[in-house]
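User: Quick sanity check before I run a bigger batch. Here is a single chain. Can you write out its predicted 3D structure?
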Amino acid sequence: MAKEILQLTVNGQPREDAVAGNLLLIDYLREVVGLTGTKMGCDGGECGACTVLVDGRPRLSCLTLAASSAGRQVETIEGCARGGRMSHLQQAFHEKLGSQCGYCTPGMIMAAEGLVRRTPAPTQAQIRQALGGNICRCTGYVKIIESVEAAAAESAA
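Assistant: Done. Predicted structure follows.
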């Protein structure tokens, strides 16, 4: 298959890579860029484990062609930490026990990040709606919602 040059920004770093036109964004991030925090869960856009931000909006990377991200800003879980310090959301998930096995956590955090950027003080209903496409098989979601609430409160302070 012919390759094309993909230019985009990943976690604040400009990139230029030759990719096949049918390469999925998740495969680009994991195999080409080497960022393995984004997880493949269902391979069909139903679990949310592969959620990343594209131009600040949550996107399922298992359903997104890498080429469709040309010229865009892509953010993964690896881009959340700054200077070796976890983001408010990462810290809250750790402190409030928002992750169990951790497999869904990167997608949950990225979906929540998209929400708190648009809505700095989200209600529980808004959090539930924003995370509605993300499945966790380990918890009852209470700790996840508490984690997002705590992070939003910390960010607002």
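The chain has a mean pLDDT of 95.

User: Great, the batch can go ahead then.
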